[in-house]
Amino acid sequence: MKKFNTSPISGMQELLPGLQTEFDRLKAGIEEAFHRHGYQHIETPTIDRTEILLAKAGGDTEKQIYKVVKTAETADDADQALRFDHTVPLARYTVEHTNDLAFPFKVTQVGRNFRGERAQKGRFREFYQCDVDVIGWGKLPFGYDADVISTLIDALKILPLPGDGFLVRISNRKLLSGLLASMNLEQHATDIFSIIDHAEKVPTEATQKAFTDLGIGSENVVKITTFMEIRGSRKDVVGKLLALENSNETFVAGVNELAIVLELLEGQGLGNVITADMLIVRGLDYYTGTVFETIVPDHREIGSICGGGRYENLAGNYNTQAMPGVGGSIGLTRLFYLLQNYGMVHTSELKPVDICVIPFGESEIPAANKLAEKLRAAGKSVDLEYAGKGLGDKMKYAGRVANYAIVVGENEVRSGKYMIKDLTTGESEELVF
Amino acid sequence: MKKFNTSPISGMQELLPGLQTEFDRLKAGIEEAFHRHGYQHIETPTIDRTEILLAKAGGDTEKQIYKVVKTAETADDADQALRFDHTVPLARYTVEHTNDLAFPFKVTQVGRNFRGERAQKGRFREFYQCDVDVIGWGKLPFGYDADVISTLIDALKILPLPGDGFLVRISNRKLLSGLLASMNLEQHATDIFSIIDHAEKVPTEATQKAFTDLGIGSENVVKITTFMEIRGSRKDVVGKLLALENSNETFVAGVNELAIVLELLEGQGLGNVITADMLIVRGLDYYTGTVFETIVPDHREIGSICGGGRYENLAGNYNTQAMPGVGGSIGLTRLFYLLQNYGMVHTSELKPVDICVIPFGESEIPAANKLAEKLRAAGKSVDLEYAGKGLGDKMKYAGRVANYAIVVGENEVRSGKYMIKDLTTGESEELVF
């Protein structure tokens, strides 16, 4: 007999039923939060035209995209590949269905995306992303920047995080853009954004040296460094930004936008889970205004668990109508892996089924079925055991899949009274509906 | 500017938000039914090793499988393809994780599968399948055949079907196998199964001719035809099967198994949605015992909306341990398309959001936010409108995404009293929590 390798391909998450139960609970909690906040759920195909997917991409994306081979029966189709994020298919969807959508289009997508990158612990080639986006028609008020962030905050509350939970760090790309313009350093903007994006991962001297290596004078390095160190509450940060006395138009717009977004979030009672922080710039060129990342203060080494921002134009590659947007994403597959690794998922407690009903013998099957139906009608997940040889066998099975067991024997059927056994503590008590 | 084709690739379902809401409701209802019945949810990767996926396959599967091109960074991986059903990855999963699973393994998978077949109305290349399976270790009692069927019946109740709803037609492959063996017609078994599988789609004479063309004598044709016409309640059918006085061991086993499964289902009060029907044989060789299909009696032309059966060995290609199983599947993407086509999905009523809260001006945003949070805490999906220019604009937006609207103006904030407007009827009443 041929010997097969039955492990999943490297980089693919495959969970046992107990862990899957917990993953599903978190995913459902996130989806429910998105729904509560009025985001409309859509699903785009896993497979899309390569020319659409790669219209804007370059660099890593182009190297990591999974192309799909057409079959004999689909040979007439366009070249195809697996989507690598939700944003590109959303742009295509929004252009294709423009006349059937109401703008601003508040939309959520939760599904699997694919990137064929090098195998690495904690990196996945197939991964769930949970996205919210708001797409405007022509323009989009900054209230939606706050809307996206407060929605993601509500969603993140489902996570079993320790201590102080999470903290959303917010900035606006116009601040640094404006600052650099006022110093005539626009030609180094991409490099400087990247240096600041990495500043927390390297020693301070390395950051300083990186600026000097670009040929930036010491006076300007001080200005950038002073800017980078601004963080805290809205009042503090807006005060410090104004104290820089920078009259560059873009900078001033950035201060205003940041203040509006922070004030709206504070007004929603979220002042304790947000902070303004000029170290947040986000790596991608893509973003043009509000940017945010989310950390777990008790485990800063995890990095950002949720991020996003505002972009000037969603579908600039496919049409000429300006569609500014703001969005954010939770990378659930990687996040779940991290939660497991940090011991925040208690695997021993995870049973996929609530109650296992065990008919003692064949003649008790009808009564066991009736009882199971009653428990199901009460909202419980109920398994019925038909297979074990003796009661020991059956209880062992129940202990692996369920939290509780109920044995249905002759006496129970006669009396209509059932004992429910807690399979964790071993204690039994009479079942009361 | 380059002109892009922004339509989804042919054969991919892409729904507008209203229809997606209804699709999601049906999918969630099916998943909840599976969960209530104690089936453990798992997810297998979309991409798997080609040698695993094609270990058993042949014919159409091999022609229709979507192969995936490895990227530069995944070049060391095994050859890969997209899964075309849930059963093959389940076999791999069960072998890989045997030591961590409790048997019988009651499992459900709900997700997207892929087949690159010729474009055709109502056929999909990416489609949701909603599966339940029970995998035994060595042997598996027939109670699980009934368990799978009753679980699927519970799940199908979520569908908006007309009139009498659906009917599950049940048989057992051992009956026909035994009958053919008793007539020494085993060598024609595959052909005869196929002829019976298609019998309802062709005139009676064509079926008769097909038998005759195989060289089957008229006496045997009569016997087969008599068998094919047996259908009805358990009592009727078991009586008619016994009246054939066939002592073939396989045939007798088939009668017993069918009687057990039907009796268990009747015992669960499902006698009115099931029927025994010897025309049900299922096309695939794969099945070895119980087989079932589900029709909508008021629309028989739709064909089967849910089917399945028992198989001797789930993972015979990957290991030597016998793992008999029984399972069934709802093809939700195709089913949803059919429901739409038959006018059973009322698109005009489908709004993704419950309530749209509209602050009259900027100064009412904080109060509108507080109201929205209260409504969300009460379980509602609530959108907040920041974008429209005037009230007309804002109400128009609300009418497209939500069922109700609440305008938050100066008076409302002062009095704390809000009117909620039904956007379908146009009627307003005071909001009471």
Biggest sheet features of chain A = 9 strands, mixed
Named CATH topology of the largest domain in chain A: BirA Bifunctional Protein, domain 2
Radius of gyration of chain A: 27 Å
Structural class determined from secondary elements of chain A: alpha+beta
**Spans of chain A with pLDDT under 50 lasting ≥5 residues?**
none
Determine the most extensive contact between two protein chains.
Answer: A-B, 103 and 104 residues
**N-C termini distance of chain A:** 53 Å
Q: Tell me the fraction of residues in β-strands of chain A, as a range.
A: 15-25%
* Overall shape of chain A: elongated
Written overview of the protein:
The structure is a homodimer of 433-residue chains. By secondary structure, chain A is α+β, with helices and mostly antiparallel strands. The first copy, chain A, folds into two domains: 17-197 and 231-341, Bira Bifunctional Protein, Domain 2 (BirA Bifunctional Protein, domain 2, 2-Layer Sandwich); 351-430, Anticodon-binding domain (Rossmann fold, 3-Layer(aba) Sandwich), CATH 3.40.50. Chain A contains 15 helices and 17 strands. Chain A has helices at residues 17-36, 50-53, 59-64, 87-96, 143-156, 173-182, 189-198, 204-213, 218-228, 234-243, 249-267, 332-341, 365-377, 391-401, 410-415; strands at 40-41, 47-49, 67-68, 80-82, 105-114, 126-135, 167-172, 231-232, 274-277, 287-295, 306-311, 325-331, 353-359, 382-384, 402-408, 419-422, 428-430. In chain A, the strands form three sheets. In chain A, strands 1-5-6-12-11-10-7-9-8 form a nine-stranded mixed sheet. In chain A, strands 14-13-15-16-17 form a five-stranded mixed sheet, sandwiched between helices. Chain A has a three-stranded antiparallel sheet with strand order 2-4-3. In chain A, strand 16 (419-422) and strand 17 (428-430) form a beta hairpin. In chain A, helix 1 (17-36) runs antiparallel to helix 5 (143-156). Chain A starts with 16 loop residues before the first helix and ends with a strand. At the A-B interface, helix 1, strand 1, strand 2, strand 3 and helix 4 of A face helix 1, strand 1, strand 2, strand 3 and helix 4 of B.
